[in-house]
Structure formats: C-alpha cells, structure tokens
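Structure first, sequence second, as always.
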C-alpha cells in the first residue's frame, strides 16, 4: 500500500512545511491494537446483526417500524465498511490473515469485492490530487478548460454524473449492486477471482435472507440499507476530496505530502457521526499514512501541531460542496457552473 512515509521529502515552496518530526508521530500510531480492533468488530458487526434480527421481528408489526430499523442498519454498515477499508490497507490487525478474513466478511456485508477494491483504492492513494492521473477510485472531476472544450454530449453526461441526486442516490446503488459485480479490464487474476468469489458469497447471502424474509421484502430491506450506507459513504468520500481549496497539481509539481494535507479534508463531525463513520473524517491523517488504523486517527491528529493546522470542514460548511463542479486552474479552486457564466461575461466585455 502507498504510504506517505515511503515518499521522498521535497522542498517545493508550494507544499506544507518539510520538517520531518511529524513522521515519528505517525509511526507511533501505525501500530495496530488487537484489543481495539476486536472491540470495534464487536460493536459494529454485533449491533448490525441485532438490527437485522429486529427487522425480522418488525415485519409482523409494521413496515413503518421496519424501515427506520433498515436505516439504522445502513448506519452500522458505514462503520463496517471502514473496518473493511482498514483491512484492505493492512492496518486494522497486525496479522495479514486476520485482515484478509475480516475484510472478506465485511466485503460480503457491504457487497464489495475485497482484493479488487483494495487494488483500486491503492491507486487512489497513489494519485489523489494528481491532475494527470485521474479516473481510478475517485469522483470524476473536469477542469474548467476541459469542460469548455468538451462536446455538448460530454457536458450533459458530466452534469448528470455530478448531479447530487445521481451522485448520492442512484450512484451508490449502481456501484454496490452492479459495478462491484464486474472486474476491471486492468485487474490481474487475483483481483478478478476476488470478484467472482465475492459474487458467489453475496448471492448465497441474498438467497439465504430471501428465504427467511421473502424475496420482495428482502430486496426492499437490502435496497434501503445499501442506499443509506452507500449514500452516506459516497458523501463522506466526496467531501473528503471535493472542497473549494482542495489541492490539485499536474506532473512533476504534484507532491504526496501536499496532496494529503491540502487535498484531503479534516471533516469535523459530531461525535455520534464520527463514531458511525469510523473516524474517517480525519482523512488528511489517513492520506499521510494509510497504515494508521481508524481507531488511532484522532489520537494521531491531536499529537502534532502540523496536523492541527489543517482547517476543518464542519457539517454545515460541507454543504457548500454540493455546488462545486469543476477545477479552475487559474484560481486554483473548485468552482460551480456559475463560474463559467462569469468567464463568459468577462470575455464579452474584453471583446
């Protein structure tokens, strides 16, 4: 897995301070804790299983009780995905076997192929904020000039893709129910096989639960659970890399440290939401070192002044990200479509 500690330290003027004492802090929190890991598994998968049992019991009472429980199950599934995510980075347990076993189990619950996702996600970490290497494990982002030079059809597709209803509603359902059932053309045999084995496990789980709940009730419940978890998860990922002052650079100007501290947000959430999202709001720390397990992210953030210098995004300020669509290379900011109208007016005046 790509890790900041494996990257060379540069001295470019546009990057964060280059003193390396923070690396010692990061090393301290990279060590997995068996106790913390097991406790997190118990407090995540345990409540998730109990919630599904309550959903089963609620069927004979009212669907008005079933649906809120399905929403709650979706919230627990977000936390389970963070465990899956950490296992993919090899950071949750010290044992690789433990990471792979728990990661696979969480993959079944989240409908996500473990090895295939891990491979794509490692590319995201290695290229986050790199304008020349977009397209794998990220949210499709065009620059202003790319958008202006694109065809009407390309603009239409981009606008639809970036529409919040599609991005956080239809998109997650497509991703988890359909996209994850197929392999990438660039995947190697192990990643391809992981998709096939995960499909078998997912379909087996679905068949079992459909036999218990009935096909239609199960599909409605699973759809609700996945919609809640997927929508929340995509929103978290979106806010973590789609904010106004986010870092983007091209070619040799791209810097790993800057991409972590300036291109990954510190999403400061209320404690209850921080718990359900497995501390992943400390995303700048995660991108500095993916080897830090989620249960150590906050402690690492609080341990060094450099990490605290990252301006947080709050729940209210994060809503501004809804309107951000394009990267403007001149102002070096993410902007909305309204910025294009401003450019056209300026161009008309100059003519």
């Amino acid at each position: 897995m790509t890790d900041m500690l494996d990257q060379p330290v540069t001295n470019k003027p546009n990057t964060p301070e280059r003193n390396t004492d923070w690396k010692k802090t990061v090393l301290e929190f990279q060590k997995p804790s068996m106790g913390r890991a097991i406790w997190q598994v118990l407090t995540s998968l345990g409540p998730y299983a109990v919630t599904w049992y309550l959903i089963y019991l609620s069927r004979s009472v009212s669907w008005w009780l079933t649906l809120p429980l399905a929403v709650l199950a979706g919230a627990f599934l977000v936390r389970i995905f963070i465990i899956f995510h950490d296992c993919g980075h090899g950071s949750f347990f010290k044992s690789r076997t433990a990471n792979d076993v728990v990661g696979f189990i969480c993959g079944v619950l989240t409908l996500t192929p473990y090895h295939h996702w891990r491979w794509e996600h490692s590319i995201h970490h290695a290229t986050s904020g790199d304008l020349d290497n977009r397209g794998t494990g990220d949210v499709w982002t065009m620059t202003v000039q790319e958008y202006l030079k694109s065809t009407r059809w390309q603009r239409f597709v981009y606008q639809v893709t970036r529409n919040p209803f599609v991005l956080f509603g239809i998109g997650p359902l497509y991703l988890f129910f359909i996209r994850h059932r197929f392999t990438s053309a660039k995947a190697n045999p192990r990643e391809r096989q992981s998709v096939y084995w995960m499909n078998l496990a997912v379909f087996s789980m679905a068949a079992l639960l459909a036999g218990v709940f009935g096909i239609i009730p199960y599909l409605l419940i699973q759809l609700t659970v996945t919609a809640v978890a997927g929508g929340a998860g995509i929103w978290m990922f979106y806010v973590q890399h789609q904010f106004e002052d986010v870092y983007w650079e091209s070619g040799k100007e791209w810097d790993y440290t800057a991409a972590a501290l300036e291109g990954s947000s510190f999403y400061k959430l209320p404690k209850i939401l921080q718990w359900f999202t497995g501390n992943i709001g400390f995303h700048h720390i995660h991108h500095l070192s993916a080897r830090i397990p989620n249960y150590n992210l906050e402690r690492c953030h609080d341990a060094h002044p450099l990490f605290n210098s990252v301006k947080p995004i709050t729940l209210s300020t994060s809503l501004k990200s809804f309107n951000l669509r394009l990267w403007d290379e001149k102002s070096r900011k993410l902007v909305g479509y309204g910025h294009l109208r401003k450019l056209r007016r300026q161009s008309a005046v100059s003519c």
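Margin note: The beta strands are 142-143, 266-268, 312-314, 326-328, 333-335.
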